[in-house]
Give the backbone structure.
Amino acid sequence: MIRTTTTITTRTTSRTRSLFSSIASPLTEPVLPSSENQEPGPLVNTQLLLSILCKPNWQKDPYFKKIIPSISPTHLTSLFSECGPHNLNPHTALALFNLLSQRPAFKPNVQSYSSLLLNILVPGRLLGVAEKIRIAMVRSCESAQDAEFVLRVLRKMNDTSVGGGGGEVMFKLTLRCYNMILMSLARFLMIDEMKRVYMEVLDDKIPPNIYTFNTMINAYCKLGDVVQAELYLSKILQAGLRPDVHTYTSLILGHCRRKDVDSAFRIFKVMPHKGCRRNEVSYTNLIHGFCEAGKVDEALKLFVHMGDDDCHPTVRTYTVLICALCGSGRKTEALNLFEEMIEKGCEPNVHTYTVLIDDMCKDNKLAKAKEIFDAMSEKGLIPSVVTYNALIDGYCKEGSIDAAFEIFDLMESNNCSPNVRTYNELICGFCKAREVHKAMALLSKMLDKKLLPTLITYNLLIHGQCKEGHLDSAFRLVNLMNENGMIPDQWTYSSLIDTLCKKGRVEEAHSLLDSLGGKGIRANEVIFTALIDGYCKADKIDFACRLLEKMLAENCFPNSWTLNVLMDGLCRGNKTHEASQLLERMVHRGVKPTVVTYSILIEQMLKEYAFDHAQNIFDQMVSLGHKPDVCTYTSFLLAYCNQGKLKEAEEVMAKMIEQGVLPDYITYTVLIDGYAREGLIHRAFDIFKCMVEAGCEPSQYTYSVLIKHLMKEKWLNESRHRIGQESNPNVTSINIADVWKLMEFDTALALFEKMNEHGCTPNAKTYTAIIIGLSREGRFEVAWRLVDHMTKSGISPGEDIYNALVDCCCSLGMYGEALAMIDTMIRYGLSPDLDSYKLLVCGLFDEGNIEKAKAAFCSLLHHGYNHDEVVWKLLIDGLLKRGLVDRCSELVDIMKEKGCQFSPQTHTMLIEGLFDRTQGRER
């Protein structure tokens, strides 16, 4: 029990001195900030400092002046714990504490306060000052752990007498100190401790005041527990006190937190009748409640009437409304309110700016978001981690990973520590950009920063590995999840099952589905649909249909995507009648067909050149309120082009644009191919120009179509000059997949010339598409000539080009050239892909160039790759699969020498792999 008044008696002091020392000392280290956990600097010697403090003019001592910047709260805690009022004058100790506290870089913590209080001031009987220090200690709590520490100190202090100078001091808590500790506990919603402290107030026969009751009410209301809050309201009345504005404002908050805005409004209306004036917080709490309930217009009406009670909107009032307007899509009103806020002299805070920045990013207005961010910084406001995360997320979703990393670097340079969400957003960005090795490197950085990856982190990485087709790495990540106590969920397995199906491993995918029940995971519609799609792609339509029945039997309701993939499978198998029956059945079950559903049927009709039937389905789709999309129109376009009906194709294109449907790269490429096949190459490039001017990026397929027809045109021109000579029968019938096998450098130059004639200057993406196409077919010489042409044109090759060239060199056994390519990448700050490194290192070992292989491996270890992934891809999937056991062991030793850490699960996998290969080699 905590006592409450100050008395002095005569007892011995040794027991109490040691008791108080035990309160301060054992609890000091675990709750210190990381910067304070370090060993004291070499210049700070506690005993020497004590000897200086015993001098009359200690402030002027040269040693003291030298070490004062190095003295930390930890040093003070040690000093005061080792001393007492007999060894260190309490006034001197207090003067030192105050002197250090005036320095901006020094912030006393709860341990330094308690050490001064328990070991110096109370035993020295400076009780008036001790009370102020006690209050300051309570106010200095920055975490729940701090509050628990302070509470233990206060309880021990109240139950124990402190001796000094032949007497004993009972330094008991006042009601003010009780109320302060209740406020501190309320900050961290430590409601159980608050109840205990409240009971201790009563046990000590101290009458609670309105401040005590309001603190309890407010804490319960923050949790939305109005029932408990109203019990304390009744205690106010029982004590003969009157509820005040803080009481009612807390109750408004409580009702709003439990989504009962009507009850909150009733309390708001009754306040004047209870003689209680509403204040800005009363209004803001209710406005926030209305906004949370989606009643933004009611919130705005309340906002307008604030002046009726002589209340003025605060920065929080404006921010709450701006946030609600942004969330409701009323962006213009939000910006107008922001301008009004500034005009009325209410300066926006970090949260206000963050709301606008986040909304601009979600609306893909990154330039405006950055403008607001810069304006905020110019006003001297320090962005929070939430602000930075909003921008990083916006850039990542736009695909501007470099810009996102600039914000990340700025964040770290401004001493704002990234959190798990920051890393998750960057990991998501890299995975979307198909740079999963960089995402894995961020996982390493997270772990280095002692940030625990979440289920979202692992799911993003697993999805990224699956997207790249790296199934082994994806399954290893699942094992890593389990090792770290993270349980895979539906989304984890949906990525794995979908990728297995895409790789044609449908039976493995089905086995994985069957295993989910034993893992306590219920398959959802995404998992079933992925597997149904897999069976359809594998031409096993009957299996797909049976899986639909299983899905229904397990009460997993199909969605429109399920319907679409199964209909697509049936149409591909020329089972149009069955597809129509399936559509009727699913509609009867409540599955709504989408524009994609009808487009699948239309595409099938057009493949059979049943234009009238396709048009009927199109008209039916429109009559049902479905707006045709780009795929619908492109199906018609392709059918007309395949029949050489270019006029009809142009009419489809015109109608499409008239309906506000933007053509995509497939639409344009189909039309380009249509014109070129009719020998209208100039018109094909006109369409290409329209494509570029519309902001639609040409794909590798677009360039392959153009190159195919340029090659055909070249052959036709050459054949005219070779009358009577043997003609080349291959070019006119060239398959689009063979373009990169046959293309020569002069064809690329012809393409660039045509592009320039039509005002479409070749850019980095043009070169990248062509060079990658050539590299994949082993056409290194032509690809390298294009790199030279590219650099002479003032365009720098990017990572994609270099990685493609490295892979090309390795496939041709040109390991020296591949090594030089990787060195060039590193010199220009580019990151070679781990798969490229695997091909190079394994190839150099195969070639017998051991030292260069090891050098290349050491090089990659210096560039921040995730060490688990390095082991998985280079050692296990690379060297061990090639039977290079000894080389693998040598590289493991190199990793150990360099202090590279990898997970126990990876280590076990590596040892098992080495053992299996060694046993196999011996046999």
